[in-house]
Every structure is written in C-alpha cells, then in structure tokens.
Amino acid sequence: MTESSSAGAAQAAPEKHGFQAEVRELLQLMIHSLYSHREIFLRELISNASDANDKLRFLALAQPDLMAGESELKIWIDHDAEKGTLTIRDNGIGMTREEAIAHLGTIAKSGTADFFKRLTGDQQKDSQLIGQFGVGFYSAFIVADEVEVLTRKAGEPAARGTRWISKADGEFTVEALEHEPRGTTVILHLKEEAKEFADGWRLRSLVRRYSDHIAFPVLMRKEGEASLDWEAANQAQALWTRSRSEIKDEEYKEFYQHIAHDFAEPLAWSHNKVEGKREYTSLLYLPARAPFDLYQRDATRGLKLYVRRVFIMDDAEQFLPMYLRFIRGVLDSNDLPLNVSRELLQKDAEVEAMRSALAKRALDLLARLAKDEPEKYATFWKEFGPVLKEGTGEDPSNREKILPLLRLSSTHEEGDEPKVTLADYIARMKSGQDRIYYLIADSLTAARGSPYLEQLRAKGIEVLLLADRVDEWMMGHLREFEGKRFKDVARGDLELGGLEGEADKAAAEEAQKENKKLLKRIKDALGERVSEVKVSSRLADTPACLVLAEGDMGAQMRRIMAAAGQAVPEAKPELEVNVGHALIKRLDATSAEDEFTELALLVFDQAKLAESGSVANPGEFVRRLNKLLGQLMAAG
Q: How many CA atoms lie within 13 A of 482 on its CB side?
C-alpha cells in the first residue's frame, strides 16, 4: 500500500450516517407493503449489477485500463443455507466511498416529496405507488434484516474499497476496506421467513423468470455439495437482439419489468429492426400506469440507448418527443459512434430521422391498441391522455395520427369517462351541421351545467366537453378534422349555419331591434366592463352570459398563467342577455337609474361567475344579491 492510500484509508474510518428521511419512509413502506411481491428484490439487484457492468463497458472504450485483470463482465449469485445469506456480485463500475454514501443513503429524484404526500397507509394502494416510484437497491430490505455492500471503483487500488452496512433502522455504517475484486458485492442476511431465497433451485427459477434476458451471464454454482464450478443460469443474450418469432409474450413482459422497474405488465409493445440506409433495433413499451413524476418536465425519461449492443445511457430523451415521454424501451443503433454524447445527439441529423420514425412507430402502436383492444386503450387514456394531447401542438407533422387517438367527453355520453372519438362525433352530426362544437371548463361537472349549452342542448346538438388543463392550449392548435371546423361555443357567434332556419334568423334580428334601447342602457351601466351587449342565441334558462372574442384568452388559460405569476392580457367580453328571462324583464321595467345599474351589475357578475368561477369584488356581489333578495321578500 502506498503512503497516500494508507492516509486515505486512515481518514476513511468507520462512520455512522442517518438515512435521508425519504429513504427511511420508503424502507418502512416497502417492508410492510410489498410482502406479496418480495421476490422482485432479486430482479432489482441483478438489474443494478447489469447496469454497473454496462457502465464499465462503456467507460472502458475510452479507458481500457479500467478492465484490467477481468475483461469478461459477469454477475455471480451465491447462497449459504446454513448462514442464511444470499450474495449478488458484479465486476462492473463499482463505487467510491462518497458514491456509496450518496447512492445508498439518499433518493435523488425530483418530485420525491410529492410522491410521499400521495401515500395513504393502505398497503395495497401504496405498493402500487412504489411500483411507479421504483424500488431498486432498497428492495433488498424486503427479505433481509441486514444488508452489507462491499465495493471498489474500477481503476482504484484495492485499498480504496468500501464496506456499507445497514439494518434498515434509520442508520448505515461506512468504513474503509481492503477489497480486491472490482465492482460491487451485495450480501443479504435473510430474515427467518425469507430463508427460501437461500435455496439454489428457487434462485435459479427466479433468474430464469426475471433475468433470462440480461446481456451478461448470471453465474451460479453447479448443483451438488460444495461445488466450486460455476454455470450460467440465464441465456445471457439481450432480448431485443433475438428474432420476434422466438420471443414469448411472457419474456417481453419480464423484460419490460426489468427496464422499467415496474410491477405491472405493459399494455403493449412494438419490436422492430430497421435495415437499409440506417440500421437500428427498437423495442418500445406502453406502460399500464403513469410514473409519479409524469408531469415534471425536468424528470429523467427516455429510452435506454445502446450502440452495437454496448450500453451508452439510460435516459436518451432525444429519440422521442416530449409528449411521448411515457414510452419506455430500448434503442440499439449500428450507426451512431460509441463515444456519442447528449450534446451530439441533439445536433445529429441521423438522430432526428430516428426520432421521427420512432414517434410514428409509437403512434402506430397506440392506434393498434385502440382498434384491437379498446379496454386496454381506455386504461392508457386514463393514465396518459392529457400528455398525448400535448402532441397536437408539439408535433404538427403527426397531428393527423394523434387526432383519431383522442378520447373525449361530450353531452351525448353520461359519466366522467372520456370515450368519444372525433369520428364518433362526426358520425352523429345533424343534417346541415358543419362545425364540431366544444366547450372548455374547469371540470366536467361545470361543463355539463354551463349556460353556453342551453340552446344547443335544446336543439339536440352534441358538444364536446373539455376539462383538462391542456385543453385550451390544445384547441388553440386545432382548426378542423375531416373537413369540419372546430367551434368554441363560448366564443364569438355560435355559427349554427344550416342548423338555423330562416325564421330563426329573422326572429333573432327582430329581437335585437326590439330590445335596442334595453341593450344600450345595460352597456351604459356596465361601461368598460364589456365591449358590447347583445340578445343571446345561446341561452334558454339563464339571464345572461359572457362571450369572448375568437382571439381572446379563455378563463382556464388565464387562471393557469396567473397562478404561474405571468401577466394576463386584458380581455373585454360581450354580454349576451336572455330577453325572455324574468330577471331581464325586471331589469327592462326598472326606471330608476341607480336601481337599474345595481341590477345590471348583478347580472354581469352572475355571468362572470358562470364563465370564470369568480368575480372582481365578491363583497359587492353579495351585497347586491342580498339587496335584491330583500326586495323580493318584501314584495312577497
């Protein structure tokens, strides 16, 4: 040992550390909630070992000395039934002391706090959440009451080894270790009720079930007393390199669970090999449920990237657009350089071509699922529908592929489950109808009770009901579908076209003329609050509503911008009044200007409440309403 390494070892004396608070909570949650899934710990630890080998193989391209002494990368599993231990070892990249503390003592994931807020205390529900969050190394504590990690970073001397030990009691110990083998060894001291995992036959069956596709040999001792010979317990061939015809569905599902660290099976997958001008293999999966950080746009995501079967990176987000961030899988290219970086990927024309092709392939996968297995597609839409909607604006070149995939609510369907397609809507359009009518609201309940639907509902005209936060942004990018233009029923003229007869048009014009004086009085009373006052063609039971101009920002988007601290542009709506309503008749009969103004402002605020859910001065609104109610009670 050199003087410097001796000094380093002396400085790295045994130390006790406390787990990050989130780790302590996750450990307790897993130990108590995942008992029925406990065998997944082996899949997770083998997956970690495989990742460590992958990372070393990649780094060794530029630094061959890192592989000195052991050029073949492997994974070993050993067990001791008498001692009740299980050992998983790799000869991959390994960890330094600092990395062991950081990687094994904390959770470095964005959205961690939000994840823990969603925990309910219900073991079954919480176990599903853990599957979304991922378990990794900490799954060892499901079956072990003590876990020991021995590790040495590739390229470091043996004296720079590290031992990490914990009993999941809120603390772990780290100390220096003379550790000759490169890589990481995880020793599980099994709980009494988990001693089944110190049985060779049981372990072999789990390796074949969960890790047969691992690209490195998973070695176990040959069966027999005190055998010193090792043999591979898996095929040690990357699954995506095999022919589709020889891969069973069960193998595809298990491989998904390996790369996604998910308990659930995928809804569907697409495995393709491209040959010709560019050569690559892709295996894309559609998860059954959303990850906890789906809406955190800075979260890590993307495909596992390989170049000629050499692992390059875990989350190559450059190969799929953001609105397909839920897709999981593997991409193996024969054309990219082995030293490719994220910066090069962002500028490479070949990457852009692959990105376009993979996006189309993912959308084709969704289209097949929607057509062949609508129940599974409904599951997908419930989890990822709002994210897919983002593609209507982000990916104009694929908009025509995305639009048939939308599932929406409408006045034709009861319940909250969106299941109407645009094709369904067009098939039910009335004779003479040339618009696809829609309404945006904060919730489906608010949409179904909206005054903007009153006349359309009376005429039997179907209206799409949109309540996702992304909907106003989405509709800002949509103009038509199959030659039918989209029309917001809360903006501008209603544009009934052939749905409105000549008699209806004449009656509307006559009503506007007959009430010209009333409309001017209301406009004068409201002043700059509105741009115009008109007789409404939308209302049947409500006294008034506010109508935005076609280019104005809607109430939903205005609230989102305001919540984000952004400046909200001014909008001056039109007020449409229902001249047949008792309140408007009372307004017309009011001669005293002060009383007229008070009542006109009350009508305006009511319309504002229906449009945006709030008024500028709630106190004044309540005062006016109480005053009117008092007058009505006195008159009664």
A: 13
